[in-house]
Design a protein that fits this description.
Distance between the termini: 5 Å
Order of helices and strands: EHEEEEHEHHEEEE
Radius of gyration: 15 Å
Number of strands: 10
Number of helices: 4
Shape: globular
Structural class: alpha+beta
Strand content: 35-45%
Helix content: 10-25%
Length: 164
Protein backbone atom coordinates (compact mmCIF):
# COMPACT_ATOMS: atom_id res chain seq x y z
CA UNK A 1 0.00 0.00 0.00
CA UNK A 2 1.20 3.47 -0.87
CA UNK A 3 0.51 6.49 1.33
CA UNK A 4 -1.43 9.28 -0.41
CA UNK A 5 -3.09 12.54 0.55
CA UNK A 6 -6.82 12.21 1.23
CA UNK A 7 -7.38 14.78 -1.53
CA UNK A 8 -5.83 12.37 -4.00
CA UNK A 9 -8.77 9.97 -3.69
CA UNK A 10 -10.40 10.56 -7.05
CA UNK A 11 -13.59 8.67 -6.34
CA UNK A 12 -16.60 10.40 -4.83
CA UNK A 13 -16.68 9.90 -1.04
CA UNK A 14 -20.47 9.62 -1.32
CA UNK A 15 -20.12 6.77 -3.81
CA UNK A 16 -17.39 5.09 -1.74
CA UNK A 17 -19.49 5.12 1.45
CA UNK A 18 -23.13 5.05 0.38
CA UNK A 19 -22.89 2.96 -2.79
CA UNK A 20 -19.73 0.90 -2.41
CA UNK A 21 -19.83 0.64 1.39
CA UNK A 22 -16.74 0.25 3.50
CA UNK A 23 -15.49 -1.35 6.67
CA UNK A 24 -14.78 0.40 9.94
CA UNK A 25 -12.24 -1.54 11.98
CA UNK A 26 -10.87 -1.00 15.47
CA UNK A 27 -8.66 -3.03 17.74
CA UNK A 28 -5.19 -4.53 17.52
CA UNK A 29 -3.40 -7.67 16.44
CA UNK A 30 -4.64 -9.57 19.50
CA UNK A 31 -8.29 -8.66 19.08
CA UNK A 32 -10.19 -6.49 16.61
CA UNK A 33 -13.54 -6.26 14.92
CA UNK A 34 -14.84 -4.84 11.69
CA UNK A 35 -18.28 -3.91 10.44
CA UNK A 36 -19.79 -2.58 7.26
CA UNK A 37 -20.58 1.11 7.07
CA UNK A 38 -22.79 2.76 4.51
CA UNK A 39 -23.51 5.94 6.47
CA UNK A 40 -20.71 8.42 6.97
CA UNK A 41 -18.70 11.17 5.41
CA UNK A 42 -15.22 12.43 4.64
CA UNK A 43 -14.66 16.14 5.00
CA UNK A 44 -13.21 18.81 7.25
CA UNK A 45 -13.95 20.06 10.76
CA UNK A 46 -12.00 22.09 13.28
CA UNK A 47 -9.29 22.74 10.71
CA UNK A 48 -8.58 19.03 10.18
CA UNK A 49 -9.42 16.49 7.50
CA UNK A 50 -11.96 14.19 9.12
CA UNK A 51 -14.11 11.10 8.80
CA UNK A 52 -17.58 10.84 10.31
CA UNK A 53 -18.98 7.41 11.11
CA UNK A 54 -22.18 6.23 12.77
CA UNK A 55 -22.32 3.09 14.93
CA UNK A 56 -25.18 1.66 16.97
CA UNK A 57 -24.28 0.72 20.55
CA UNK A 58 -25.32 -2.94 20.19
CA UNK A 59 -22.72 -3.54 17.48
CA UNK A 60 -19.64 -5.46 18.61
CA UNK A 61 -17.38 -2.96 16.85
CA UNK A 62 -18.80 -0.26 19.15
CA UNK A 63 -16.90 -1.83 22.07
CA UNK A 64 -13.63 -1.52 20.15
CA UNK A 65 -14.34 2.05 19.07
CA UNK A 66 -14.99 2.99 22.68
CA UNK A 67 -11.67 1.46 23.82
CA UNK A 68 -9.34 2.49 21.02
CA UNK A 69 -8.12 5.91 19.88
CA UNK A 70 -7.50 4.74 16.30
CA UNK A 71 -9.93 3.29 13.78
CA UNK A 72 -9.70 2.66 10.05
CA UNK A 73 -12.15 2.99 7.21
CA UNK A 74 -11.40 0.77 4.25
CA UNK A 75 -12.98 0.69 0.82
CA UNK A 76 -13.07 -2.09 -1.79
CA UNK A 77 -13.86 -2.88 -5.37
CA UNK A 78 -17.30 -4.19 -6.39
CA UNK A 79 -15.99 -7.76 -6.31
CA UNK A 80 -15.96 -7.55 -2.47
CA UNK A 81 -19.63 -6.55 -2.06
CA UNK A 82 -20.58 -10.02 -0.75
CA UNK A 83 -17.77 -9.85 1.81
CA UNK A 84 -19.00 -6.44 2.95
CA UNK A 85 -22.56 -7.76 3.10
CA UNK A 86 -21.39 -10.57 5.41
CA UNK A 87 -19.47 -8.11 7.61
CA UNK A 88 -22.65 -6.07 7.99
CA UNK A 89 -24.98 -8.96 8.73
CA UNK A 90 -22.94 -11.18 11.08
CA UNK A 91 -21.48 -10.37 14.47
CA UNK A 92 -17.81 -10.69 15.30
CA UNK A 93 -19.00 -12.07 18.64
CA UNK A 94 -20.10 -15.20 16.76
CA UNK A 95 -17.69 -15.62 13.84
CA UNK A 96 -14.29 -14.51 12.59
CA UNK A 97 -15.60 -12.22 9.86
CA UNK A 98 -12.26 -11.79 8.11
CA UNK A 99 -11.81 -15.55 7.75
CA UNK A 100 -15.46 -16.08 6.78
CA UNK A 101 -15.28 -13.65 3.88
CA UNK A 102 -11.67 -14.18 2.82
CA UNK A 103 -10.19 -10.86 3.91
CA UNK A 104 -6.56 -10.82 5.07
CA UNK A 105 -5.93 -8.56 8.09
CA UNK A 106 -2.98 -6.18 7.94
CA UNK A 107 -1.71 -4.91 11.30
CA UNK A 108 0.24 -1.68 11.39
CA UNK A 109 1.20 0.86 14.01
CA UNK A 110 -1.74 2.82 12.57
CA UNK A 111 -4.50 0.28 13.17
CA UNK A 112 -6.01 -2.70 11.40
CA UNK A 113 -7.02 -2.89 7.77
CA UNK A 114 -7.22 -5.59 5.11
CA UNK A 115 -4.90 -6.50 2.25
CA UNK A 116 -7.76 -6.35 -0.26
CA UNK A 117 -8.65 -2.71 0.52
CA UNK A 118 -8.47 -0.26 -2.37
CA UNK A 119 -8.22 2.64 0.12
CA UNK A 120 -7.62 2.69 3.86
CA UNK A 121 -8.26 5.86 5.85
CA UNK A 122 -6.58 5.89 9.28
CA UNK A 123 -8.35 8.04 11.86
CA UNK A 124 -7.78 9.21 15.43
CA UNK A 125 -10.94 9.80 17.44
CA UNK A 126 -11.49 13.50 18.14
CA UNK A 127 -15.09 13.47 19.34
CA UNK A 128 -18.09 11.22 19.78
CA UNK A 129 -21.68 11.74 20.80
CA UNK A 130 -24.99 9.95 20.55
CA UNK A 131 -27.54 11.29 18.11
CA UNK A 132 -30.21 13.16 20.03
CA UNK A 133 -33.64 12.67 18.43
CA UNK A 134 -34.71 16.04 19.85
CA UNK A 135 -32.59 17.53 17.07
CA UNK A 136 -34.44 15.81 14.21
CA UNK A 137 -35.87 18.51 11.98
CA UNK A 138 -37.38 15.89 9.66
CA UNK A 139 -39.79 13.58 11.53
CA UNK A 140 -39.19 10.83 8.95
CA UNK A 141 -35.69 10.27 10.35
CA UNK A 142 -37.22 8.59 13.40
CA UNK A 143 -38.32 5.70 11.17
CA UNK A 144 -34.67 4.58 11.17
CA UNK A 145 -34.90 4.02 14.93
CA UNK A 146 -37.85 1.73 15.68
CA UNK A 147 -35.86 0.32 18.62
CA UNK A 148 -34.72 3.78 19.79
CA UNK A 149 -31.12 2.55 19.30
CA UNK A 150 -29.64 5.85 18.18
CA UNK A 151 -26.24 5.82 16.54
CA UNK A 152 -23.17 7.24 18.16
CA UNK A 153 -21.30 9.59 15.84
CA UNK A 154 -17.53 9.31 15.85
CA UNK A 155 -15.47 12.09 14.34
CA UNK A 156 -11.94 11.03 13.50
CA UNK A 157 -9.02 13.13 12.35
CA UNK A 158 -7.62 11.60 9.18
CA UNK A 159 -3.99 10.77 9.95
CA UNK A 160 -3.05 8.77 6.87
CA UNK A 161 -4.60 7.39 3.70
CA UNK A 162 -3.28 4.33 1.89
CA UNK A 163 -4.04 3.30 -1.66
CA UNK A 164 -3.46 -0.15 -3.14
Amino acid sequence: MKEINVRDIKESPVELIADGWGLVTAGNEEKFNTMTVSWGALGEIWGKDAAFIFVRPQRYTYEFLEKEDIFTLSFYGAEYKDALRLCGSKSGRDIDKAAACGLTPVFTDCGVTFEQAKYTVVCRKMASQFIDPAGFEDAAIESNYAKKDYHKIYIGEILKVYCK
